[in-house]
Description:
Blueprint: H1 9-16, H2 20-28, H3 30-45, H4 50-57, H5 61-69, H6 76-86, E1 90-96, H7 106-109, E2 113-119, E3 122-128
Antiparallel strand pairs: 1-3, 2-3
Helix pairs in contact: 4-5
Amino acid sequence: MKLSELKTTEEILRQDLRDPTFRAEWERTAPARAVALTVLRYRTDRELSQRALGKLLGMPQSQVARLESGEHNPSIEMLVRLSRALGLEFAIDIRPADRPARYVTKQARTADAIADYEASETAVLFAAG
């Protein structure tokens, strides 16, 4: 098979999202992926190891690795810890899907690490930066 015949990540994801079970899990973990990207960007921008970041956060390296995996949604307490220790900002908007966002700023809607989706008649926007 030629390299040009291989599917892109976007093509594979688009195909996988057709499966309702996969789509539900993808949407459920969207905030986790946004936090993971934000924490990973913070750590790499400062050339920190997971162990060094863990020291800043008062947690073991394994917990940093779990956070960066993007597979588990962080608790509100974890978001508070990240904000206090690293100066990160998070915006979360959860509302009925038929209503426009009233409290989220335009900047939050265009943040680098963002999860924006609808599930079960609920709209969820999660921005991190």
